[in-house]
Amino acid sequence: MAIDSDNPFLPHEIITNVLKRLPVKSLIRFLCVCKQWKNLIKTRSFVADHLQHSSNQSPFLIWHWNDDTKRQHLEMMDYKSRVLQGLPSTMISSRACRIVGSSNGVLCVQIYTETSSLPSLLLCNPATREVSEVPQPINNINGEFRVGFGFSPIVNDYKIVISGATLLNNLVEVYSLSKRSWKEIKVGNFGVVEFSPCPPVTANGAIFWSGCFSLEGENNLVIGGGEENYDWVIISFDIAMEEFSLISLPDLLDFGFWDKLTVYKGKLAILSLDVIGHYESSRIDLWVMEENIGASGERWSWSNIYTVSTFSYMVPCCIWLDEIVCKVDNIPEDETALYILNLNTLELKKFATCRRGYSHSITSTYVESLVPVANIHNEKADSKS
Amino acid sequence: MSSSVEAITVLSSDGDEFKITVSAAKLSKPLNWMLEDVCFSDDCDEVPTIEVNSKTLVKVIEYCEKHAPRANSGASDSDAEELKKWDIEFMKMDVKDILFHILMAANYLHMEGLYDLACQTAADLMKGMTVSQIRKIFHIKNDFSSEEQEQLRRQHPGCSFD
To answer: Using one digit for the tens of pLDDT, what is the confidence trace for A291-336?
Structure first.
């Protein structure tokens, strides 16, 4: 860079500090400014600085849905402007799919396939438009499977965990994004534990699913099958240690199918739903889990921090900062509407609709990042230049 | 330092004299260290030089004087709102002409608040710019060969050389 008397030479430190505040779209464009900028934008430390800055901003809401013409819709909403903005959905898949998880700007997407024993997974970064196909796990899973995705700052790695619908030894594999390979892991003996089909959430280096724990030992679990021979539980997977554990739900909460795991202020939380009357309105409770260290003996404790009564019947989906994302089925119109409900002001705003009954997924923790998901090709190209 | 001193005099790199109140000078670590130095006692007439040009120093002092009352005593939410609006007005300046100098000065004077504000202002101005505009304001020459440009375009369809 030339030094100019009217235009000071900005040191590297200042350039970095300015560039880390730019949206990814601008940074991708500025790769072409000069070699020095290209190399800076691609360094690990810059990617980390940019991510840290981005994580301090309000997260985006990402909403994906499949419509009846088999078209995919992928949309993103900014917390400030509240405008839904379309993303190229072909980026994730042209087939029906759902978002399994979101961490540091990376989405893990599960594509529905005819043969359910072969999971088809993608990792994508919507900001850089980068997509990578995840290789097949080592073993075939015969029957239904569950997938989780998350990041652990301890090992600085993103991992995907895949398991059969029941948590059993020899049926769980973990994929590490840094190693780019799958491995089988032991799960320990928890009795009969089954994952619910709801997508998991990730927070603090762990992935959490709701699930059921059989009270009758080896007997098969029949969730929702009349006799209550099971207890709801949270299945937690420590991404760094690659270990499962079970977490009890709040004593005062009668967990059910409509209750959702979510993340509130970086902590695991539950949005529970109580139907009032004959589906006239809802009561939504927000429970937040604290991880205790020693003292009380219990490793986890729950507190009910919000109770909201709504004017009509709505089902909570997730928390987005201080708002609850809810869905309402409109049967006469055959559509599902999505609303945001402010926890403090109780203001309610509709932001999207989709055809009723079609699969959709929402993530409320998306932040823009430069985190690479796949650039094996790019790395090779870079080493030459 | 003498507690009776309420304002100090500093010289810009162009040799002009500027007055800055003690409370405002405290926003900068290096200026604060100077304050603790003996040369601000009443019987000392040596005027320290700040390696910032006059045009920039005027703006830096204006920022310090505005932010000092809040930094020293804390402020209510309405004050914070007002200050935010003031910052936006204050930052309406030409990138090449002064913003880059403010960035350098805030970094040199260890003024975290002004540095963050200037970095964010620069980023907001840059985000919509084309590559040629960026090269122009930063005085950068395109050092990619045409093969390298082609390769970058293939890898990142979002990048552009114009």
So the answer is: 876 556 677 889 999 999 888 889 999 999 999 999 998 888 888 9
Q: How confident is the model at residue B1 (pLDDT cuts 50, 70, 90)?
A: very low
Residue labelled with tokens 């993608």: A122
Of A10, A31, A35, the CB nearest to B103: A10
Structure tokens at A19: 């560039």
* CB contact at 8 A, A259 and A274: no
User: Contact, A362 vs A63, CB < 8 A?
Assistant: yes
* B interface test, pick of A19, A30, A46, A49 with most B CB neighbours within 10 Å: A30
Q: Of A166-175, A180-189, B36-45, where does mean pLDDT reach its minimum?
A: B36-45
Inter-chain touch A19–B123, beta carbons under 8 Å: yes
User: The domain that contains B56 carries what CATH number?
Assistant: 3.30.710.10
Give this complex's ipTM.
Answer: 0.88
Query: Burial of A147 by CB count in 10 Å (0-12 exposed, 13-18 middle, 19+ buried)?
Result: buried
Q: Which domains does chain A have, with CATH numbers?
A: 9-56 (no CATH), 57-384 (2.120.10.80)
Task: Record the tokens describing residue A250, joined without a space.
Answer: 């709040």
